[in-house]
Every structure is written in C-alpha cells, then in structure tokens.
Amino acid sequence: MVSLETPVCDFGRPAVDFSLPGVDGRTWTLQDCRGEKGLLVMFICNHCPYVKAVRDRIVRDARELKEKYGINSVAIMSNDPSDYPEDSFDNMKQVAEEFDFPFPYLLDETQEVAKAYGAVCTPDFFGYNADLELQYRGRLDESRKEAAAPDVKRDLFEAMVQVAETGQGPAEQIPSMGCSIKWKEEA
Fold first, then answer.
1. Is residue 121 a contact partner of residue 180, using CB atoms and an 8 Å limit?
2. Per-residue pLDDT for 8 more than 60?
3. Which residues form a coiled coil (predicted)?
4. Which of 21, 54, 96, 187 could be disulfide-bonded to 105 (CB atoms 3.0-4.6 Å)?
C-alpha cells in the first residue's frame, strides 16, 4: 500500500464533467451533483484504511454542508477492483447503504474521471464554488489511518463553509493523505 499526498490546490480550475453509474441505479453527471453554493467531489473507495477511518466524518460533513450551506457532495470510486474485491460495485452498494451516504456514490470503471481530475489517492477531496471553480484540495482533518480525536479542526468542512459564504477557499491548505489509486495495468 503506497501512501500519497495530494498536490497543492490549483485555484479556479474548472470541474470536469462526467457521466457515471451510481449505486442507486442512476447515471449521474456533474450538473446533477452540483449544489447551489458548490460541490465537493471526493475520490474514495471501500478498502482503504484512510477512508475507513473517516467514513463517518465524511457522511457527517457532507450532510451538514448540504443541509446548512448549499454544498452538495459526490463520491467517486476509481480503483481497479480486480485486485481489490472489496471495491467492487456490489460492495460499493453495501457500504453506501451501511453508512447511509447522503450523496451519490459513483463507479469510474474506466478511471478516466480520476485521471481528468488529477486524483492521486483515497481520500482525495476537490471543493468547488458555485461556479464549479476549484477552491479546496486538502484534507478532511488530521486523521490518517486512524481517526483523529473527535474535537480536531474540521479542515474540509470549514473550508467548504468559507467557499459557500465567499466563493473562495482558504489560501493555506494541508494536503490530504491516503492510499494510491489502484490504476489498471496498461495492456
């Protein structure tokens, strides 16, 4: 398992459109997912210990951002499940149901969406303003493979509240860290 950090936020970079199948049986696009004040695009998976450590916090923050601040969220799973069966579409459905995901959970089977976004790890967070311009590319909080203390600073949440209120993300951002995306072998 390779641990990676996300690159620095490329402020203003436009969100990339997509059309991906969700665990709910529906196909979702960027426009379907966006919220009135912005969109949080998350690259996650089922097997990664970094994601497992914060799944409950991701759900909490996504729900609160939607209900109170007009920021919608979407989660995309781009790993190759052939070597990681825990990341299969059927298992994605189970995890979404078990954790009551308040956002679409989508499969990027070709991995083209992850490549277009420049996603490198799970979790990898991309926070966009109402104009779908990138304003945040940082961590959820100081959790790593284990959840941090319950009262730690909510980096992602606070940044996205700022984006909802001002359209701008914070100048200082701490990169997210996680497992590398499991890319398919080139044929």
1. yes
2. yes
3. none
4. 96
Superfamily of domain 3-180: Glutaredoxin (3.40.30.10)
Q: Would you state the pLDDT for residue 2? A: 64
At 88, which amino acid appears? S
Question: What is the residue whose two structure tokens read 């083209």?
Answer: 112
Q: Residue 45 in contact with residue 87, Cβ under 8 Å?
A: yes
- Report how far residue 143's alpha carbon sits from residue 150's, in angstroms, rounded to the nearest whole number: 10
Amino acid at 94: Q
* DSSP per residue, 134-183: EEE---SSS-SSS---TTS--HHHHHHHHHHHHS---S--PPPEEEEP-P
143 backbone dihedrals φ, ψ, rounded to 5° = -60, 150
pLDDT at position 1, please? 55
The DSSP symbol for 133 reads B
Angle at which helix 49-69 crosses helix 155-166, to 10 degrees, equals 30
Q: How far apart are the first and last CA of the chain?
A: 22
pTM: 0.96
Instruction: Give the start-to-end residue ranges of the domains of the chain.
Output: 3-180
Here the tokens at position 138 are 């940082």
Radius of gyration of the chain (CA): 15
Residue 156 predicted with pLDDT over 70: yes
Backbone phi, then psi, for 20, in 5-degree steps? Answer: -130, 150
CA 100 from centroid of its chain's CA atoms: 16
Q: Is the pLDDT at 7 greater than 80, yes or no?
A: yes
Q: What pLDDT is attached to residue 4?
A: 75
17 to 85, 87, 161: CA distances (angstroms)? 27, 23, 23
